[in-house]
Amino acid sequence: MKALVYTAEKTLEYKDFADPTPKENEVLIQIESVGICGSDMHAFLGHDERRPAPLILGHEAAGTIMSGPQKGQRVTINPLVHCGKCEFCLEGRTNICVNRQIISMPPREGGFAQMISMPTHNLVNVPDHVSLDKAALAEPLGCGWHAVQLAKKNAHKPIEECKAMAIGGGAIGLGAALCLKAVGCKDITIVEPNDVRRNFVIEKTGMNAISPEDIKGESIFDVIIDGVGINATRKSASALIKPGGTIVHIGLGDAKDGLDIRRMTLQEITFIGSYTYTHQDFIDTAHAIFDGRLGDLSWIEQRPLSDGQKAFEDILSGQVAAPKIVLKP
């Protein structure tokens, strides 16, 4: 098969690669849509020791089953493979399974390829009226869905009454905002510094999106979801959250500094790390997409998988307005 292979820092090569071999209870899937994630960019830049070259990246994928009883069925892929036996799996918290694997990290190759092998329980059937480009968004939107469930559980008042902010106009931040809207939150602000992307988000979704410089005042949000996760965004969240408010941190931009721990302690601010989604969250997100509860999702840009190197370079240089580039093998 052909695959887009990460071979060295800032280098992706479109080349021949060995076809995957399905294990027990797995099926082959022909990949038709696969999104570029921020974690793929971290690996591309050589910043993720969990993803050493050579490796096929990509974990936001949808396609068609090529083997087994469901051959021909269109599916979206939950990339997190859980063991189903550890204490966390038995509690339904499959996202923190101690034996978890994810495609695009060894030992599993990723979805920037023509084919992949996956366990059947990681697949959600896609109805005919939903494009596979949109179905592939179940993964990034699932991160926002899970974060919103944590916010609902921990917020000091009903989420419908909360003033909320999502940091980042990419698929994670925007997805969190769309998920907040889907559960009834009415006052939502997206913060995105890139003018081109911010204007694109406003045009395509009608959501309230502003630049960081446009934020007035401090301690003004009940819930903040950080879809970026860098020093500056944690610092902003620390200043803008109300006393007793809840910060949910999804982004993995960097690992150090930013939180005002003294203020969080004195004003009983809740900080929650949010990692991906449970298996049930993924299913729920997929069905929310299928039902149209997360909007029309018309903010995708398509590019051929063979042009993946250029797509990464354009994202890195800030030239991409769309929150999500979907590669087509």
Protein architecture, described:
It is globular and about 55 Å long. The chain contains 10 helices and 18 strands. Strand 1 and strand 2 form a beta hairpin. Helix 4 crosses helix 9. It has 2 domains: 2-137 and 297-328, Quinone Oxidoreductase, Chain A, domain 1 (Alpha-Beta Complex), CATH 3.90.180; 141-273, Rossmann fold. The mean pLDDT is 96. Strands 3, 5, 6, 9, 10, 17 and 18 form a 7-stranded mixed sheet that branches. It has a 6-stranded parallel sheet with strand order 13-12-11-14-15-16, sandwiched between helices. Strands 2-1-4 form a 3-stranded antiparallel sheet, with no helix packed on it. The chain is 28% helix and 27% strand. The protein is of the alpha/beta class and 329 residues long.
Structural class: alpha/beta
Proportion in β-strands: 25-35%
Largest sheet: 7 strands, mixed
Total helical segments: 10
**DSSP summary, beta strand count:** 18
Keywords:
329 residues; alpha/beta; Quinone Oxidoreductase, Chain A, domain 1; Rossmann fold; 2 domains; 7-stranded mixed sheet; 6-stranded parallel sheet; 10 helices; 18 strands
Give me the secondary-structure topology.
Elements: E1 2-8, E2 11-16, E3 26-35, H1 38-44, E4 55-56, E5 60-65, E6 74-77, E7 80-81, H2 87-90, E8 101-102, E9 115-119, E10 123-125, H3 132-135, H4 138-154, E11 163-167, H5 171-182, E12 187-191, H6 195-205, E13 209-210, E14 221-226, H7 231-240, E15 241-249, H8 261-266, E16 270-273, H9 279-290, E17 300-304, H10 308-316, E18 324-328
Helix pairs in contact: 4-5, 4-9
